[in-house]
Amino acid sequence: MIGSFILRLTIWFLLTADFTVPNIIIGIAIAFLLPRGNTPPERIKEWLSMLKKILIAIPVAYIEAFEIIIRPHNGEDMILERAKMKRSPIMIFLDVFLITFTPKTIVVRHNQEGCYEVHRVFPIKKP
Question: Which of 16, 74, 98, 115 is the most exposed place for a label (fewest CB within 10 A)?
Answer without folding.
Answer: 74
